[in-house]
Design brief:
This protein is α/β, with parallel strands linked by helices. The protein has nine helices and 20 strands. The strands form six sheets. An eight-stranded mixed sheet has the order 5-4-3-1-6-10-11-13, sandwiched between helices. The chain has a four-stranded mixed sheet with strand order 15-16-17-19, with helices on one face. A two-stranded parallel sheet has the order 2-12. The longest helix is centred in the N-terminal third of the chain and has 21 residues. It starts with a strand and ends with a helix.
Length: 434
């Protein structure tokens, strides 16, 4: 007989101070007001001796260093093993800066230490205190809230816009956990789309994520948490013909209403609530780097970039990473040969959450879902780290903003078949743990 499966949820507000630079666009945007509260939501799970927590925070990105601090504190105060903690950023472009990026501002260190980390630990502790026996129901529906944003031009280039021919993941998945009396404990909504509907606002907002979260909570009378999926090449399908808003919050509310209607429809279609078999599938993912540049090549590239006063955007990002490489060589360290990270997949019956430390393209997760032994394979972006965009190999030849960042943003450059490698690595972990 299976041990009783339990679930608990808690949320805490994580707004930054007004005046904080909002992260998500390269121009300075001091926060002028709070349109809707940013939250960190912890969903805690337990079955027998197995404990885990999935965290979703309304911020644009996260770093491995921050996640390591969060994991350490939660492990110390709650007793959850570090690798049984997955932390995801919802990717709103109207929250505080969590990581430093050339041309995009500096990380808000005080906010991270005084608000984000302690509020995340508090939410997790509360979620565990509120755990109760649970059953699970799941449903999927088509949602056209998002669309491919790599708009083709007549001369063969790619710009940010709307691409009606491009791939996106139109599947929205809703997971409902109810207690043994049939009362809602928490809903999980999974969908992949950039948080750019509110555009370069100066007001703090969760973007469409907030509209969907609040709408589903109202309609189901149950706490709801959104986990963002493959949003690397997907933006909101806005009525202005773009994937970035330009009419205040009108487009954000429009597209959020579409997502809410779809999520509620999926929720209401759930008729079968079952006992849960909870697993955490663990392993290491290894993604090889291209042959790294030598110190001489790094210095040549720095000379090509020229005066930093004349640089912006991707050029500043690249320069900062190259300077870090110079320091590495000066300290006598050897370059790494691969990106290696620990992976923990959360499985609930035939549904599995696969964390990605990238903004991955939709076709990557569609392929993984196709080959996965799990019926519902849900990939979460910006989870446990936010490295950069991860394009599909077939998109490399078209270039564009995301591909340029993948190829140039850091000293370490992943192989262009990394999409295939990361799919194979996650499938290996699934097979080794079953």
């Amino acid at each position: 007989m299976k041990e009783q499966f339990k679930v608990g949820v808690a949320k805490e507000v994580i707004n930054p101070c007004l005046g904080t630079h909002l992260y998500g666009y390269p121009r300075i945007r001091p926060a002028s007001a709070v349109r809707d509260d940013l939250n960190v939501s912890a969903v805690a799970f337990e079955q027998g001796d197995l404990k885990g927590v999935m965290i979703s925070a309304d911020i644009c990105s996260v770093t491995k260093e921050i996640v390591d601090k969060i994991r350490t504190k939660i492990c110390e105060e709650v007793g959850i093993p570090k690798l049984n903690i997955n932390f995801s950023a919802t990717h709103t472009h109207s929250g505080p800066p969590i990581k430093s990026a050339g041309g995009w501002g500096e990380a808000a260190v005080d906010y991270i230490n005084d608000t984000l980390i302690p509020q995340t630990v508090k939410a997790t502790k509360t979620a565990y205190e509120k755990m109760q026996p649970a059953l699970m129901g799941v449903a999927t529906t088509e949602c056209l809230m998002g669309m491919n944003r790599r708009q083709p031009t007549e001369n063969g280039k790619v710009m940010l816009g709307q691409n009606p021919f491009g791939i996106h993941d139109s599947t929205m998945t809703v997971i409902a956990f109810k207690n043994l009396e049939g009362e809602g404990i928490v809903n999980l909504v999974h969908y992949g789309c950039h948080g750019t509907a509110s555009a370069a606002t100066t007001e703090i907002t969760r973007d469409w994520i907030g509209v969907v979260t609040d709408g589903v909570e109202i309609q189901t009378n149950t706490p709801t948490v959104v986990f963002n999926g493959a949003e690397g090449d997907v933006g909101p399908r806005l009525s202005n013909g773009r994937t970035v808003g330009n009419h205040g919050y009108r487009e954000m509310e429009e597209v959020g209403a579409v997502g809410t209607i779809d999520a509620v429809r999926a929720y209401k279609s759930i008729k079968d609530f079952r006992e849960v078999e909870f697993k955490i599938l663990k392993g290491k993912v290894t993604l090889p780097y291209k042959t790294p540049m030598t110190l001489e090549q790094v210095n040549e590239r720095l000379a090509e970039l020229g005066d930093p006063a004349n640089l912006e955007g991707i050029d500043l990002r690249e320069r900062g990473s190259l300077l870090d490489a110079v320091k590495m060589f000066e300290e006598g360290k050897e370059p790494d040969t691969a990106k290696v990270f620990d992976q923990a997949l959360f499985a609930f019956n035939s549904t599995i959450f696969v964390p990605f430390p990238f903004e991955m393209f939709a076709s990557i997760t569609l392929k993984l879902r196709h080959f996965s032994p799990y019926q519902n394979t849900l990939c979460t972006c910006n989870t446990n780290d936010s490295i950069f965009y991860l394009p599909a190999q077939e998109d490399m030849i078209r270039g564009g903003y995301e591909v340029t960042i993948f190829r140039r943003a850091t000293y370490y450059r992943l192989e262009e078949n990394t999409d295939t490698t990361i799919i194979q690595e996650n499938l290996r972990i699934m097979r080794e743990n079953n």
